[in-house]
Amino acid sequence: MKFVRWLADIDRRIIFVVIAVAVVVPLLFPLGMRVKVTPQTQTIYDEVENLPGGSNVLVSFDYDPAAAPEVHPMALAFLHHCFQKKHRVIIMALWPQGAQMAVSAMAEINRDFDLEYGRDYVNLGYKPGGAIVIKSLGNSFAEIFPKDMAGRSTATLPLMEDVSNLYDVDLVMDLSAGVPGITEWVIIANALFQTRTAAGCTAVSAPQFFPYLQTGQLIGLLGGLKGAAEYETVTAYAGKASPRMDSQSVAHVVIIVFILFANISYFILRRKREEGSGGPTARPPTSA
Amino acid sequence: MKSAYAVLLLTVALTAAAHGQTLRTAENAAAADKAVDAGGSIDVTWAPSPDELEAEVKVLGYEVWRARRPAGDYKKLADVEAGKESYNFTDEEAENGVEYFYKVRVRGEEMSTDTAPVGPAKATREWFHPNRLNMLIAAVLLSAFILYYISQARAGKVLFIRRIAGLEAVQEAVGRATEMGKPVLFVPGIADIDDIQTIAAVTILGRVATMVAEYDASLLVPCSRSLVMSTAQEVVKEAYLEAGRPDAYRRENISYLTDDQFGYVAGVDGIMVREKPAANFYLGTFYAESLILAETGHSIGAIQIAGTAMPSQLPFFIAACDYTLIGEELFAASAYLSREPRLLGSLVGQDWGKVVILISIILGVVTAFLAQFGVEIFGRSIALEQLFVVK
Amino acid sequence: MRREIPMIVAFVAGVIIILEFFVPTLRNVAGQLQKWYLVVVAFAILVGAFNLLRMNYMKVRGRRVDWPYSIVLIVGLFAMTIVGIGWGIGQGTVFDWLFNYLMFPMSSTMFALLAFFVASAAYRAFRARTVDATLLLVAAVIVMLGQVPIGSIWVPSWWPDSLVFLTPDWLKDRIMNIFNTAGQRAILIGASLGVVSTALRILLGIERSYLGEE
């Protein structure tokens, strides 16, 4: 009985240690499980695939290093796919650290492609203001981003000559970990300017964007590490998300086992209490 | 001028013929006022030259030329790169009400060919966006409901508002913090002041601050946006003033930490662990940080009241907090706590808005269902979805 | 007057931005207002930085609890600013290095806490106390299994298509796309109505809390 009581009120640090082991061990000894591609990932893939080469794709880096383990692999797989299809990529950020995340993503992408800055891609950097920035991009990129991240005048970048406002963007991919992020892109870029919009976000935030998927306001949605792993699978890109899915699998199972323990101990203790008080039908003595 | 133009065309044609090939013009060129805008813009559209598609002669790109008369003095407006299925150029330097003519020139390696002039096109400004009539009706209707019930409430009509457990507990939480001699922690979310949830949170902060001032407890408000911090400082100062305790107001207790999401979480968690507040309020917009905050708060044994309209974070708050305001309860909070009739009126108006939305949803589902079976009225599908599309 | 002027500004700016949605002619005026907003926001970042600096300086000067951490903060703030302005923030710069090897791991660590907290919160919250709680528990387990590859591993290849509704994968899709989305949408509609009504109250000056007034 003592054990059951201990289990019911387990020190959370024990849970933490078990979870840590469940996450680390599969990272060291991968199980190599295969990820199934869901329709909301497939639709983003198809969109990039079907855009004519040379289309303008805007990628908004609205996340910071914290969400990077989940969202950064999406950025890499998506950018890789875009450059493979010879699309031109405009990078911007509504989060202060997003622009820097884009720098590290492009550093990795540049190893696989021979890209020319200004013609194949641009990094416009960070701009505070969230929703209003998106709304203003409906009028003009040059006014909001007169200079790119490195301080070059955007007017001198060949790519930006063809992109005057959001109407010239064929696809927006918002990679977001919070606010400003997907909601802003959907209700402004998509609703006001009819820009085709796709998104990727952390797993905890994904469920709230499902309504936008059903209405078609989002073409597709990559949710968390799983979404990233799916995009890696569908584009056959050897990224970091797929191997990490093993850890997530094992951690989920461990959490389920914990929930099971919690319930077993809960039921044993409840029965004990009921027996102690004379069964479930017994009423506590009441004074008149 | 006309003859000069003819000579030019002839020269181009002859040069081309000399090379044994010609460059065919861009197809379906057209110019028209840019639809629903503030004026000053004309859209020029065209389809690729057949030579671009068949790739017999290399097409380098297109040029757009503009003049005031068909055979007038054309000036080049723009170069457009080749390689698209259809082309669209917006001339944003047109004067309203002036007639313009345009030519599209297809440019090859050694020759170029112009389309016949297209136009006249006139830029005009529009005063109404016809595709948004449905939104206008919805906005007017909803505003009318809200304003009507506000006026009713002002006239003294008693409006019912259901009990919201989370808000009943505010006083209890502040009271407990006072008894224990520990501070109250108020976290107004991670969004900026332009987010309505943040405004709702700041409104509730005003009420909480009044209680804190009356009970003589202390209040900590770490903010993740500087504008939220400035607003919160004003609100709390005013609340202390109203409670007759302006001397107890501590500006430094309402501080800015960082815009960075998890930097902010680290900061707030640090405050919790050091100061051990007895009551934690998490109200506003939250993302993945919600559970990290709430679990840390749980571990220090604080009574916790959360409220957000972020659906994906609600489960976390419900699991880890004592009370949670769900969705619009957050917006109802300021009316609930103040019992101010005008605020209560707007709540009732909102509910009528919800009734209209419910009816439209039911109507939409029924008509869409019937339309599936080919039910028609006056020979048209009865599905109503087009009524709700906003462009 | 201290109250009236901000309220008039809020009313005029709000009405112009709303009307612009319906009246294209106002686009340029609204665009101008939006530009002003972006300028104000940029300055707000400075306000935050100054406040942060002031607070932490006072903490160090007063030797308040944990004041050494404030020194770390002040040094960090200046180091990143000086390095960023002085040598740029592009690839391969010192700023980039600090970002990749300090910011990156520290921030990721904070977010990683979520994995542990999810487990401990789930342990406490998911107990089959009532019918509602049991439904929540079952749904949680199905979604957790359906979300990861391990959920479909146990389904053998000969599993008949007619019994697909018994696999976690299938059930998870239904739970997420039907039940979850319906609930999310209801909350979204309710919250949006709240947004409209709060916005209306602010425009009309009924809600004045953002001015520091009750």
- Give the end-to-end Cα distance of chain C, rounded to a whole number of Å: 17 Å
> Level of helix content of chain B?
40-55%
Beta-strand percentage range of chain C:
under 5%
Radius of gyration of chain B: 32 Å
Please give the domain count of chain B.
2
Strand order, main sheet of chain B: write it out. Answer: 11-10-9-12-13-14
* Biggest interface, residues from each chain: B-C, 84 and 59 residues
Number of helices of chain C: 7
What is the global morphology of chain C? extended
Name the poorly predicted regions of chain C: none
Largest sheet of chain B: 6 strands, parallel
- Span of the ends, CA to CA of chain B: 45 Å
What is the H/E string of chain C?
HHHHHHH
> What percent of residues of chain C adopt helix (DSSP H or I)?
over 70%
SS elements, strand count of chain B: 16
Order of helices and strands of chain B: HEEHEEEEEEHHEHEHEHEHEHEHHEE
Alpha plus pi helix count of chain B: 11
Name the quaternary structure: heterotrimer
Question: What fraction of residues of chain B sit in β-strands?
Answer: 15-25%
What does this structure look like?
The complex is a heterotrimer of chains A (288), B (391) and C (214). Chain A is α/β, with parallel strands linked by helices. Chain A has 2 domains: 2-30 and 245-276; 39-239, Rossmann fold (3-Layer(aba) Sandwich). Helices cover 50% and strands 11% of the residues of chain A. In chain A, strands 3-2-1-4-5-6 form a 6-stranded parallel β-sheet, sandwiched between helices. Chain B is an alpha/beta fold and 391 residues long. Chain B has 2 domains: 2-122, Immunoglobulins (Immunoglobulin-like, Sandwich); 159-339, Rossmann fold (3-Layer(aba) Sandwich), CATH 3.40.50. Chain B contains 11 helices and 16 strands. Chain B has helices spanning 2-18, 50-54, 133-154, 165-180, 196-215, 226-242, 261-275, 289-299, 314-320, 328-338, 341-372; strands at residues 27-33, 42-47, 59-67, 75-81, 87-91, 99-108, 112-114, 118-122, 184-187, 219-223, 254-256, 279-283, 303-308, 323-326, 376-377, 380-381. In chain B, α3 packs antiparallel against α11. With 214 residues, chain C is mostly helical. Chain C has 2 domains: 1-87, no CATH class; 126-214, no CATH class. In chain C, 77% of the residues lie in helices and 0% in strands. Chain C contains 7 helices and no strands. Chain C is extended and about 70 Å long. The two termini of chain C are 17 Å apart. Classes of the chains: A alpha/beta (288), B alpha/beta (391), C mainly alpha (214). Chains A and B meet through loops of A and loops of B.
